[in-house]
Amino acid sequence: MNKKMIMLDTLSKGQKAKIKKIRTDGKLLRRLLDMGFVMNSEIEVIREAPLFDPMELKIQNYYISIRKSEASLIEVKI
Amino acid sequence: MKQIKVGLAGQPNCGKSTIFNLVSGIEQHIANYPGVTVDKKVGFFKYEDYKVEMVDLPGTYSFSSFSQEEKVAKKFIIDESNPNSKEKSIDIIVNVIDSSNLKRNLYLTFQLLEIGIPVIVVLNMIDIAKNRGLEIDSKKISKMLSCPVVETSGSKSIGGKELMQTITNTFEKKTKYEEFKINYEELEVHIQKIEKLLENSKSHLSKRWLAIKLLEEDPTILEHVGSNIKKEEIDKEIESFHTLHDKDTISFLATFRYDSADVIYHECVKNNNINKETLTDKIDKIVLNRIFAIPILLFIIFLVYEISIVYGYKLTDYTWPILASMKNFIIDILPMADFTKVPMITDFFIWMTNSSIALLNYIPIFFILFALIAIMEDVGYMPRMAFILDKIFKKFGLHGQSTLPLVLGGAMVGGCAVPGVMSTKGISDERARMATILTVPYMNCLAKVPFYTLLLGAFFKPEMALMMFFISTITIFIALLIAKLLTTTVLKTRQTAPFVMELPPYHVPTIKGVFIRSFQKVWIYIKKVVTIVLAVAVILFAMLEFPGLSEDSILKYEKQSEIYLAKFDKQIKNNKYYQLVDTKNEVSDLLNYYDRYRAKRMAATSKEDAKQLDKKFKLINADYYTFLKPRKNKEAKKINRAIRKLSRDRKKVLREMKNEKIENSILGMTGRSLEPITQYAGFDWKINVAFLSSFAARESAVATLGSIYENNKADSKRAEEAMAENSGYTPLHAAAIIIFMILTPPCIATMIVVKMQTNSYKWMVFAIFFPVFLGIAMSSLTFTVGNIFSLSGVEAMAAFYFAIVFITLILAFYPSKSINWKGGLNKV
User: In this protein, which residues make up the domain named Ferrous iron transporter FeoA-like (chain A) (predicted)?
Assistant: First the structure.
């Protein structure tokens, strides 16, 4: 068992993971929940933007992009 | 006739507008109610025996969080479902769903179902879902959600009739509607407790729904129930749920809804195409590719320019004659000038006509531009543009979504701030949106180009290309710089939003949808902008017209006119036609006839037109026509010569009068009174007047300068040459003037849309004065430094350019705080 926390922004293209916890609250938390970032939902990293910052993800069968600063608040398990 | 009120709700990109257009048909009547940042659109139309009022609500992902769109949509549902309100209450909610993105769309459906108003689910884009290999059992969905489900395809005009049938059927059976309930299991106890507390509430809304919303800590609902419940009581329930199950209500509800959506998805959808690459995937592999993405983006921007600005401008060649003939028609019916006494009403109407057609002239460009934006929005390229460029913009406090407004404003040479500012509407980050609105006016608008051309032609003939490069590329640096400046100062406390953006699959846009949307936007432009611009034109006219010439000057010009008239009289005294033109009135008449013919002859492009014109003028006055075209008639030839001379003399007097009038006018005096400040930038009162008048429309700057510097000798010198010779400016002056023009002045039309988009006069005033101040400061600095080091114009411009670029690059490394929501790793 890997005891270190894995954050979403550290994943690379093609990796799949499940959401464990979202470590934020307020507006960002609600926004993420509404977009389908709920417990145990599956995420796939599709690609990084050409300039390396936002990243494109596949979640709940659709595509979404989020900044790495936001992705770093989402804890996942691989 | 029965009335039905329908609310159209759905997530962004679900094709709500195409459904709106599909059912409302052509004979709809649309009313727009501009809100703070989002508009509510209402369509009225008839269907069978029903009068349908359809309200298109803004696209929302959810009914629980706090974006502007969600507030508007929620407020609408709360207010207009109230049976006690004056408005007709809402009967049915139509929930449009993107069939190919069922799971996330159902998330909203669950929230809508709980409200307690009958819901009809519309499975839109069903054809696209089928193409992707999705088999959707809509009957089963209908059964599971116990609400009617209709399959449609807005873009292919399928399902409109069925939807209308379902709406009327549901309306008739409305009373039998049973409230939809999700069993929230472990949360149920708490819901019921809150429900009990709400027993005395007079709210017309479902108690259960209110209870759920309260557990979600929804501020709008908390306000709605008011004194019926205390916040502590709700917090207590939330706390106890947390201690019992180690779960937050907010996350729990969201997860529960997604899980429920997942159940429906697995029961009702068969995916025959798992893991097969879709067309969107294939396109994105190229469009979002690390190497190709930016060149493709640049190419698309270039294409938008080429089509809208370049070809749109060519299109104005065809629309211009229509506007010109309108203008001619108005001038024809206005009272004529009596030699040098031009009636003020004539002056006024010519001024107004010129002002309005200058703006109407841009309509073809705007229409194409709006249509291209609509296409890019529909196709789904917009969010991808933001995806590609967000990293750069983020550094300056802007947002990936700022790309398009800045591009439209004129990131290359020639855009327009009006559609640029208008397109900021979709930016979700409030601070970035404000910063974008305030920086778009710094871009190179189309109407600034003639001004640059004039100055470059006059002072920078050999270095024209280099100067144009400076002018056209510096704007983007200035915009970034100012955005950074504003977001770290006056906008510092504004809310920012996380960058969480959907990248929807590519769609083929519908012609009807694109046309309707661009037409609506152009119409808003015409209505709002033109009316206010004309009001300003009136003020400007008054400021140029009053106090007018002094008595002495009028006498002086009258005397001069008399001399010219006497000269004319002497020349033709012995002419056999003399009795036709022996009074002043007759002379003026002939003169007007002559000038008008010359003007129209100049405008006529083909031989055919010229012939027509001749015919027309012959009909108006056959005698005068003889003077116009004397051919071998010697006597008539003499008159022709004399009248030509007289026309030139009159023009000279008119011009002198006009110059003196401008100089002594309120605007002219304002220009003079500004000289003490503007002298540091090297501006004299004439430049000041040009800038002041450019506030109405930037084109006026060139027109004003042109008329001030027009050569008094009647030769064929171009405005550039006249300016270079008569103004006494050096290229350094010109560089300072250009820098001022780059930074300012904002035109009135732009200011109106800034007011529209920020919904605040305060920001409009800021958007006017800040650039003026900055412009004066920058050009004074450049001019003074240039003088001290005796730089040439080009050197001064280059120094300014590199200074700006340098500062911008430095600022890029100054960190910008963008996270102002709480949380992060500290709170675990």
Answer: 6-78
